[in-house]
Amino acid sequence: MGCASSIHISDRVVYHSGKESEDSHSPQQTNTTQHQGNPASGLPIKPVLLVFAKEDSQSNGFCWACEKANFRCSTARTPESAVESFQEKHHDLVVIDHRHSRHFDAEALCRSIRAINSSENTVIVAVVKRPDREEASRYVENASMMACYNELLQLEHGELRAQYKLRAGNAIFTALEQSQEAIEITSEDQVIQYVNPAYECIMGYQQGELIGKEIIEVPKSEKNKPDLLETINSCIRKGKEWQGIYYAKKKNGDNIQQNVRITPVIGQGGSQRRHSSMARIHSMTIEAPITKVINIINLAQESSPMPVAEALDRVLEILRTTELYSPQLATKDEDPHTNDLVGGLMTDGLRRLSGNEYIFSTKQPHHMGSSHLSTPLSLNDIPPRIAQTMENENSWDFDIFNLEGATMKRPLTYLGLHIFSRFGVCQFLNCPEGVLRSWLQLVEANYHSSNSYHNSTHAADVLHATAYFLCKERVKQSLDPVDEVAALIAATVHDVDHPGRTNSFLCNAGSELAVLYNDTAVLESHHAALAFQITTKDDKCNIFKNMER
Predict the structure, then answer these.
(1) Known binding positions for Zn(2+)
(2) Which residues in 393-407 are b (16+ Cβ under 10 Å) and which e?
(3) Which of these is catalytic: 8, 90, 275, 454?
(4) Residue 1 in contact with residue 226, Cβ under 8 Å?
(5) Over the stretch 344-367, which tens digit does the pLDDT of each residue have?
(6) Active site residue 337
């Protein structure tokens, strides 16, 4: 058919077009300022090279603009250091001072950078005194910080974004060239635009023999059913992907059976601009069972009448969905008997509880009162062994299991006291330390020690990680004290009363929690609701009692 098609997902080659994070250049040649945040556009942080012979208001304006736009900025004073810095960091944008020729030759520096292989997708802009000619690569001298900032934003959403797309396109074509699957791309007029080396190897054709030819000019195999091409074209015209078995004829006349997938690509105006076809030799037997099912349905569809073929289309759509096992209950008014049967099956009182469901529905609740808890310890009364275990709690390498052993599986209370004290939570909530201690003990008592993972040790581990990241300078600049306290409390209670089962299990088992929360975010809703319930149930544990609304 010329449209050979289908890709084998497990045999793919991934090429990365991005660059590793760069180290700072030597201070003798460049001054580098690096920012770790993400820009508003969602693109990677862009490295920028400023080449100015000396510091002035114009260079300072661009430095400020880079910081505000969240670009990683490097500054070079000489052409030599600029070239060396570019070879090391491969900047996306280079701004060169072209106002004074006595310091260095800006055009010669531009040619030197362009001579480097990695500069193909780099945008170079010259700062000039007057607009001698209208070019996007020239910026008329303006030291205003906002003018520099606006220039960077225009470059980011214009030239830089275009270069990113070109770079991504190059990476995609590199992946196509290295793919082991035969890939063919045709236009909306079924003119062949591209075939990859794997296609050439399998079919025996050279690229030059196929590019520009219509598919109908390529010899077809007689083994295909007469109406197969019409079936494929009908599917493609509807904008649907076609997948199935197709016999192709090689250049030497041999027939080859292939598992083919043809995907229409929608272009501007909603029209189909091209068809991407990928082929896998059918003799490869490593494939998922669902793929075999889809192939069988496709084969049956080819010889079926139109009503059956349309019904099978619907079957294929259902099989390809990601919610294959999610219940979809539809009302069938035309069949009252079906309604009665479905209604009876869904009535809780008329069905028998499963074993797991019985466990969840008959399990005794936890004791909520603080009177059942042992007398809480003061922060100053923590045993030396436990205090020594928590000495490095502000380190990422802190061993939570050592604390679990030292506290007899009660790490959350002790670590919570330590971390909450370090962040001044009691002062912020305006609650006594005794209330906080009682609250931590109550929360820990509602974690199930029988769970192998979702227990209080896990909660303490998450609390430690949260506190670690809250101490990072970049995070501290973005959060207020209320955000920090909220994050610490959320980490403490985020899995309280976890039953050790997933949301899907609870929903399928028809547990009381799933019914209560209507199968929607069951555990998440339960953790949050129970946390507030046990907190406000007793004033001795209510850490929010003295807070203003």
Answers:
(1) 458, 494-495
(2) beeeebebeebbebb
(3) 454
(4) no
(5) 554 443 333 433 333 333 344 444
(6) no
